[in-house]
Design a protein that fits this description.
The protein is 68% helix and 10% strand. The protein is mainly alpha-helical. The longest helix has 28 residues.
């Protein structure tokens, strides 16, 4: 397995270090690492192979091969399931458990290239044609982004700060970039 990184990952790390307390940031990185380990273990156990892991400013992407669509769905959902499983550590490691919950919930959003969008498209492809599955995934993504944008604007209107609006703009850019580079196929 090859591991690639980008300068954007370092820039994102520097930005996060300025915003969050170190102990929360370490818990978030541990939760993210366990999330990716959940994907990796599922791929390995189901007979697949991870070709490459790319670390970027917006997260990690695994390029896999030798997985049937059903097995790929399980591998996609293994990451969020790992995050939710961290809730079992709430008494001993509360920050890790909370970060695992947030990581799992965030990754289940039906916004490309997150796990939720990939899982939805694969599940829809079982029932519908690949084109219809892609349309369903796109409609769910547009609806989710619209709801998030409305909530972020409402938060700004109520003087709760710009952080929710920045988050939604980040998600819009991430979704746009994933659609442009075609990251939907063969990645977890």
């Amino acid at each position: 397995m090859r591991v690639k990184g980008s300068g954007w990952a370092l820039l994102g790390l520097a930005w996060l270090l300025r915003i969050f307390p170190l102990r929360w940031l370490l818990a978030a990185f541990a939760a993210a690492a366990l999330h990716e380990a959940g994907h990796y273990c599922a791929v390995y156990l189901l007979g697949g192979r991870v070709r490459q892991l790319t670390l970027g400013g917006t997260g990690a992407v695994m390029a896999c091969e030798n997985l049937s669509p059903g097995r790929e769905i399980l591998c996609i959902l293994a990451g969020p399931a790992t995050g939710f499983a961290l809730l079992g550590l709430l008494r001993c490691f509360p920050r890790l458990a909370i970060c695992g919950l947030v990581t799992g919930a965030y990754n289940l959003l039906p916004i490309a290239p997150l796990d939720g969008a990939r899982a939805l498209e694969h599940l829809a492809a079982i029932v519908f044609s690949p084109i219809a599955a892609r349309r369903i995934s796109f409609a769910a993504e547009a609806a989710c982004l619209a709801v998030l944008l409305a909530a972020a604007v409402a938060a700004w209107w109520l003087h709760l700060g710009l952080a929710p609006l920045c988050f939604v703009l980040f998600m819009l850019l991430r979704a746009k970039n994933s659609l442009q580079i075609g990251a939907k196929g063969g990645t977890i």
